[in-house]
Amino acid sequence: MEKIDHLIHAKWLITCEEQNRVLENHAMAIKDQKILAILPSEKAQQTYQASQEYHYSSHAVLPGLINSHTHIGMNFFRGLADDLELMDWLNNHVWPAEKKWLSHEFVYDASLMAMAEMIRCGTTCFNDMFFFLDATASAALTAGMRAHIGMHIIGVSNAWAKTPEECFDKALAFYHQYKDADLITPTMAPHSTYTLSLPDLIKAKEIADEYQLKINIHLQETSSEVQIAMQKYNKRPLQLIHEIGMVSPNLIAIHMTQIDERDCEILQQTKPTIVNCPESNMKLASGACPVDKMAQLGVNIALGTDSVASNNDLDMLGEMRSAALVGKITAQNPRAVAAEQVLKMATINGAKALGIDHLTGSLVPGKAADFIAIDLDHIETLPVYRPVSQIVYSAARHQVSDVWVAGKQLMKNRQLLTLDEKELLKKAQIWRKKIKS
Ligand SMILES: [Zn+2]
């Protein structure tokens, strides 16, 4: 019998690969941090000798969820300013609070807190955009999560960098420090067309080209953002960045709630990823990304929560449900944005957006062992006819029992294994006192 590290038995194995298979009573053999094989449980026990066996007998095992847009360093600003319009919220609340409070220590503590929340809802990978990048990176190394960290370029003076030039300098230093780190990937992240000049947007694009980085940008989040660009350039933001060559499969366009026919043509030709953040868009009354229409254009659509200041959680299960419901009402079609499609947005499509679909995002032999177990044996999710339906429409995050990244267990039966929950709760109270005073 072949020796392996772990044998993972699952009541349901939801693969999220091409054929969308949901396998019953199957097992995953894990060796050297990767999925070696997927086969019926009985056969697996005759084939492999595992150092450890795990029986998820009432669980669905599925790829780890990928949160494709976050600002996790903001986690201590949850609930600080709610029920406001985007520009008022940013100019009068978020940016002043960031200017006053942000530091390496703040972002490190907030990032750990956010990662604890993400792991507890089954997220194994996130795509961030914030300040004090090395604080988030070191927190991710502690937590053991897969982290894509945006080299944030913004023309709004903040505690990390006063000018875009300083952002670029710090971004490049971060890139050189982390370019070869395990589980950490730097990305380019110009904030938006309304917070940066055209030369700075061009510079961000050139650096991304030079170092082959994905580019994240908030794009056409609100109608006022579109108006600002129309007044300044007589162009919509998408058109503006298309003309400087920024729109390609390498681009991660976040939000895209405002889309006209010309935008559709550009998107169809250039095929960027759109990150849908339905809860943040609803809370700020920004609008809704027409997900069904975008999918018909062949655009890759991933899913993100945005920050807890505009959501107010990092719960990808809740976000999937919102994406399905908002997607249906936007398309005026109950068949649109089905549960399987939404689950793919939260897994393999996120991996495609980040350029790591060869590595993660589906349960396929050869990929990294990034997976989660969700216990469906709860009042709220029984009986189970279609596990994907239960996960998207009924399951809550406390049903996520176990989380693994690259063959390492980060949560076991709801217990965090890499982070100290009690310590995090203490830190949150300390920061609350300071911020409240
Ligand atoms: Zn955002």
Overall shape: it is globular
**CATH architecture type of the largest domain:** Alpha-Beta Barrel
The biggest sheet amounts to: 8 strands, mixed
CATH topology title of the largest domain: TIM Barrel
CATH superfamily of the largest domain: Metal-dependent hydrolases
Q: How many separate structural domains?
A: 2
- Range of helix content: 25-40%
Labels describing this entry:
4-stranded parallel beta sheet; 2 domains; 16 helices; 437 residues; 25% strand; 8-stranded mixed beta sheet; Urease, subunit C, domain 1; TIM Barrel; binds zinc ion; alpha/beta; single chain
Provide a descriptive summary of the structure in words:
With 437 residues, the chain is an alpha/beta fold. The chain folds into 2 domains: 2-63 and 368-406, Urease, subunit C, domain 1; 65-354, Metal-dependent hydrolases (TIM Barrel), CATH 3.20.20.140. The protein has helices at 41-47, 86-101, 104-120, 133-143, 164-178, 198-211, 223-233, 237-243, 261-270, 278-283, 291-296, 316-331, 339-345, 348-354, 387-394, 421-436; strands at residues 2-14, 22-31, 34-40, 48-63, 65-70, 123-130, 146-153, 184-190, 215-219, 251-255, 273-276, 300-303, 371-375, 400-405, 408-412, 415-416. The protein has an 8-stranded mixed beta sheet. Strands 5-6-7-8 form a 4-stranded parallel beta sheet, sandwiched between helices. Strands 9-10-11-12 form a 4-stranded parallel beta sheet. β2 and β3 form a beta hairpin. The chain starts with a strand and ends with a helix. Bound molecules: zinc ion. Zinc ion is lined by residues 69, 71, 218, 254, 306.
